[in-house]
Amino acid sequence: MTKEMIAYVTEKTRELMAADSCCPEARAAAEAWLAAVGTASEAAETKKYLAELEQDITSIDGLIAFASSQTAIAAFGEEAARGLLAHAKQIKAEGAQYCDCPACTAAKAILDKKAELL
Hints:
With 118 residues, this protein is mostly helical. The protein folds into 2 domains: 1-58 and 101-118; 59-98, no CATH class. The chain is 75% helix and 0% strand. The longest helix has 16 residues, at 3-18. The termini are close together.
């Protein structure tokens, strides 16, 4: 992995970890990857990190399903859940394939470099 690639993924990883929408599993995988950079375990941790991001990134249809759910209403309130649903439908109509929250945006940026990372 080039220094430039490490710098890019490190930046996106920090963005992911700073996002309120980052789940604990992704945060733990991010921390483990950062700790492994430059060590003998870097390649193995990179594979684990990418696998975790693939599991955690939310598809646009997943976001729409969540925003339509009672869980979203309970978490955000009815009005905010309705707004999230409208937003999700709008970005899907514009061609989005994934949720555009900060955590999913950072995860997608990292996953877009998967071939270069492995």
